[in-house]
Amino acid sequence: MDNERKKALQREYKEMTTYYGVIQIKNNHNGKIFLDTVPNTKNRWHFYKLNLCNNFYRHTDLQTDWNEQGETAFSYEVLWEKKTDDVIDMKFELKQLKKEWFEKLQPFDEKGYNKPLRD
């Protein structure tokens, strides 16, 4: 690939609209979910798979189930997303989203891999 083409692809990538949002990793065998809010939903599944395959979440039920059941037992879904264009304080937005979605789905104990939020 020549330099001009490479630069054009890099420019296109940087100009792409990005979305922040709520993602879910679901264990399709037992129905438990892991919920998170992320500043960019693009390619996030690859990020989690890489970490789980490298035992990054050791000492967690999610990692234990991943190790025992394998990647094919899990699915990934973006539950909600919105353009990042107008966001002034991403950290605040993600915190508010997490609170809202944790209340809605209660991904704790038998239902999920998350720990309840602390105020």
UniProtKB/TrEMBL annotation:
Superkingdom in the source lineage: Bacteria
CDD domains for the chain: GIY-YIG_LuxR_like
Name of the protein: LuxR family transcriptional regulator
Organism of derivation: Brochothrix thermosphacta
Source species taxonomy: Bacteria, Bacillati, Bacillota, Bacilli, Bacillales
